[in-house]
Amino acid sequence: MCNHVEFGVGWFLVTTTATTTTTTTTRTTTTIPRATPAPGQSCADVTSQLSLELEKQMVQGFGSLNLWDANFWSGQVSLASMQIEDPFPGQRKILWIRFARAGDGERGNVVSTVSEWEGLLTPVEAKMEVSEDSTGNGLLRKEEFVSCLLSSPALSEPLRRLASPVYGRSAAAIDEGPSILQLDVTVDCPEVADHKRDAKKSTDSRSQLPVLFGGSSSAKSAGAALLTADIANSAAMYGDTHGVEVLLRDTIGDFLLKVQEACESLAAKNLRLGNAEAVELSRRYRLVQIGPEHIVLAFWIRQDAAEEHVEAFLGDHADPSNWRPLDKDLTFWDYASRLGFGQGGRRFPPCLRVVRGSELLRQQSRFYRQMLAEQSLAEEMRNLLAWAIYYHRGDANSPEWRLQQHPTNSPEWR
To answer: What is the model's pLDDT at position 255?
Structure first.
């Protein structure tokens, strides 16, 4: 409940032996007790009892956040039914509820008169549910929305099973595939990447380090029981046997962390081999430091391309325009229907590159330029903010300074 409702001042039983403050607005007239008791006036805090009452009503009212929702409640209620002991028996009193709801931050006031002896009141609905026409700033960035969904198994798992938010295709074929992915990954070697390179040199094999996920082909051909030390050592020099697994539910951001972990493991394994080539590989793997400036490029196979034609496939592989950046907030499952993650029967595993964003990449890839333009526009939109006074109509026009966002929807949702 606390994730949905925030209580501003609190909920009080207030005696009315003294006068109350009446505030008139252009739209409504609301009678509000003083924030602090006036002379001759007493109050008792009943926030905890009404919090439990709201939680009970949420269950009985099918999830409605409104206290005494008019659709489910009518007639009188008693203080005893809410586990409230009358602190002022024999006196006229009111139940004053003042709240600030989460989502739009709107404040509200609800006042109900309580009888002197019986403790009966006719409750007034406290609308704590955010209305659809709310003018509050309830916008979420795409990253925040995806992160909230992924952090909740109850929300994320059913969505993953229904359809991908990226391509909207059925997940039946994907669910039949393995959850541990087989990936062919290369990582830019920092030693070479830090120098000025032209487009031809950037494709040099020395500028990239292999990191294979999902098991080596040599191990599969020999069988797991026949995986000898020689095979394992040879696999380590080709970026395998690091022990790190990539799962279908991992985000691209999680994958970058696992690539860093795999490089550290390969650096240690190659160092133990002792030969000159392995020691040099160990040194290069140790130089890999993946940070926020790194991105993941995926080899985007043309729909009309056939994997059986190896020469054409390798030609497409060398074309920078066939490599597209992946969104760090999405999972491999989201791209599975298009890139084949987790699907069997493929001759080649999906190919990925982990590279640092650079001017050379910007010149070569129009998809990277498009991603940079969207990020720049999103950052500009987030900076279009201004302070303004907001008046809460449900709280006697009480003022609040708010940071208002530009009304245009975020370009990330276009």
So the answer is: 94
Q: In terms of C-beta distances under 8 Å and separation of at least 24 residues, what long-range contacts does 399-402 make, across chains too?
A: 400/105, 400/107, 402/105, 402/137
Strands (E), 195-281: 208-213
Least confident of 53-67, 191-205, 234-248, 285-299: 191-205
352, two tokens? 């990925």
Question: What CA–CA distance (Å, rounded) separates 319 from 340?
Answer: 20
Give tens-digit pLDDT for 310-322. Answer: 555 566 677 788 8
* Sign of the torsion formed by the C-alpha atoms of 350, 354, 357 and 363: negative
Given a contact cutoff of 8 angstroms between Cβ atoms, the answer to whether 364 and 199 are in contact is: yes
Contacts of residue 6, defined as CB under 8 A and 6 or more positions apart, other chains included, come to 99, 100, 101, 102
Read off the tokens for 357: 């964003």
Spatial distance between the Cα atoms of 327 and 414, rounded to a whole number of angstroms = 15
Domain limits, the chain:
5-121, 143-377, 380-413
Exposure of 394 by Cβ count < 10 A (0-12 exposed, 13-18 middle, 19+ buried)?
A: buried
**What is the DSSP pairing of strand 183-188 with strand 351-356?**
parallel
Distance of CA 399 to the CA centre of its chain: 32
Task: Please list the alpha-helical segments (H only) found in 274-354.
Answer: 276-287, 310-317, 332-339
pLDDT digits (tens, 9 = 90+) for 58-105: 888 777 888 888 888 888 888 888 888 888 888 888 888 888 887 778
Q: How far apart are CA 78 and CA 329, in angstroms?
A: 50
Higher pLDDT, 405 or 386: 386
- CA atoms lying within 13 Å on the CB side of residue 285: 28
Q: Is 131 exposed, middle or buried (0-12, 13-18, 19+ CB in 10 A)?
A: exposed
Task: For residues 36 and 42, give the distance between their C-alpha atoms in angstroms, rounded to a whole number.
Answer: 9
- The token pair at 128 is 């704590």
Coil, helix or strand at residue 347: coil
More confident residue, 12 or 3: 12
Q: Residue 330 in 3-state DSSP?
A: coil
Question: pLDDT (tens digit, 9 = 90+) per residue, 312-369?
Answer: 556 667 778 888 899 888 888 888 877 878 776 666 788 899 998 888 888 888 888 9
For 259-272, give the DSSP string.
HHHHHHHHHHHHHH
